Fold:
Amino acid sequence: MQKENWPVPQWRLAGPGEQGINPELPRQLHSVITSEYGNTNGILVVRNGCIVYEEYFNGFGPDKPVHVASVTKSVLSALVGIAVDKGYIPSAGQRVMEYFPDQVSEEHVRNCGNATIEDLLNMTVPYGFEDWKEPLERMCTSPDWVGFTLDMMRGNWENSKGKKHFQYCTGGAHLLSAAVQRAVGTSVREFANQHLFAPTGMRVIPDYPMESYTYESLFGEKVRGWVQDPGGITTGGWGLTMTPRDMARFGLLYLNMGMWNGTQIIPESWVRKSVKRNSNRYGYMWWQFERKGVAVHAAMGDGGNMICWIPDRNLVVAMASGFKPDAKNRWLLVRDYILPAVEAV
Structure:
């Protein structure tokens, strides 16, 4: 576990060769990003707590926040762990419907009465839509996003082998945010500022009054702070803005098992549970990859936003991108260029 080079308050900069990385990596990355990943706004490679490569594109810089899309889910996962640690939520096994007594109906009890916080984290709640065809636009035009998501829950909880079916659902992440908000008694944005962002030196997220619910206000260039639904609930599945350097800070926090400069921000046990290997290759809102036996844990967002941390290489990679349909998978950039350039610890 890393014990030095904490960015408190400033990052330490180092040449790639000083940290056991091929000195040619910056040149290689610049070339491939400009030719194949043109919507990239910023990228950082951090090893041993030092920034060894940092570059910005399209007019962006280190302090300009970007909408990180579904990377928001992994941040929410951290906040759930903090809420459990502080006693606001008894455990990840808590039933979700206990936080929504005003929404209980016979149909909800039948379809999602057994759904737990952990089911939402692992994306193993069944919904009545075809995989990867979630009616997100319909949810966003609904006055009650929580009720809309609860109404979507239905179907078979387990297959013939007793295994829970993985079904990715952004609405489920928003339902989780609503549960956390009810548990802690304040918005998830405010809870994050107090217990995650401020203690690690990240930008405190300002309130973002929603003047409209157009595409640009919800997902596009008009997104500021952290989006909230019509009921004032912080969006759980997207809508958070972060600077690229703060994305790297978040990755560094996980790389160090939730510890930040001597203070345990996220319980180590929660971090380990979050990335425990499973057949779905998805933990507590963290994707799981591997290259030649090296495990890579990644927060992934539309357009090419990514934070990945790689314990066996003491490495963090953060990439911020503008939205682009069918953007090239950033994991390929890590797999084919960054990891091969890094020496084993």
